[in-house]
User: Which sequence fits this backbone?
């Protein structure tokens, strides 16, 4: 029993040290002792053991930071997580909040393919089944995916799109779509007002993975007469849900700046 207690305490201390270094970046032995309330001798034993397997490494200045073994574990963890592993419960909650149809889609060529659908309490029957394809330029979910791309990548894709008109409200030029996407980026979510189907209006938002790359998008869709007056309320809910899914995939807000710089 004593050995079990000691082992558990050592594990707790190791995890506490990892969390501390994750927050601080680097710390001296003295800082670790102070932050964790350990004796000097116990701390030296702990860092020596973790250093052996490269869970932590020491800089030339004598500071401790997380090592390559932690990086390998972190990468393995986030790479093993797929959108469909983490999204459904959040999408169900969004459908309950908005009471409308919620969809998840991924990019396939120049279109979005629906891979998940959740109907809210007041959803009407929808024609888009799983596997249905939708254009990028005429749907909130497509525009959401575009809005999440790095600027250079997005511009290259926009040059390849065919701006087919589906309704009198469809955006049919690259310039107009770019302006719409810029408004969406400022707002925090995309909107589609009867651009693909005269009967519906939608809000959307992009989902990012641990590298900051857009990997999917979501939308909330409902009858145009009902949704038109709710976009300012539903849009932020869609954005918050997409952000929560992104965090589950390992995304951190700092990736947004990196993506912008990449553009």
Assistant:
């Amino acid at each position: 029993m004593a050995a079990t207690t000691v082992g558990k305490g050592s594990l707790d201390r190791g995890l506490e040290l990892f969390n501390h270094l994750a927050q601080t970046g680097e710390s001296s032995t003295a800082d670790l002792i102070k932050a964790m309330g350990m004796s000097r001798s116990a701390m030296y034993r702990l860092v020596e053991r973790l250093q052996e397997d490269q869970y932590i490494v020491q800089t030339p200045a004598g500071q401790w930071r997380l090592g390559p073994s932690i990086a390998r574990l972190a990468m393995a963890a986030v790479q093993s997580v797929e959108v469909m592993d983490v999204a459904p419960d959040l999408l169900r909650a969004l459908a309950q909040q908005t009471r409308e149809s919620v969809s998840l889609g991924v990019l396939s060529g120049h279109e979005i393919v629906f891979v998940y659908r959740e109907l809210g309490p007041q959803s009407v029957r929808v024609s888009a089944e799983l596997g249905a394809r939708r254009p990028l330029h005429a749907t909130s979910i497509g525009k959401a995916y575009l809005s999440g791309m790095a600027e250079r990548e997005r511009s290259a894709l926009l040059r390849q799109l065919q701006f087919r008109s589906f309704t009198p409200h469809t955006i049919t030029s690259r310039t107009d779509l770019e302006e719409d996407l810029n408004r969406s980026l400022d707002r925090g979510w995309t909107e589609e007002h009867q651009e693909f189907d005269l009967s519906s209006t939608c809000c959307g938002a992009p989902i990012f993975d641990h590298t900051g790359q857009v990997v999917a998008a979501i939308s909330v869709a409902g009858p145009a007469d009902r949704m038109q007056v709710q976009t300012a309320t539903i849009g932020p809910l869609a954005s918050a849900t997409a952000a929560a899914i992104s965090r589950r995939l390992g995304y951190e807000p700092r990736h947004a700046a990196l993506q912008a710089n990449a553009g």
Remarks:
- The chain has twelve helices and eight strands.
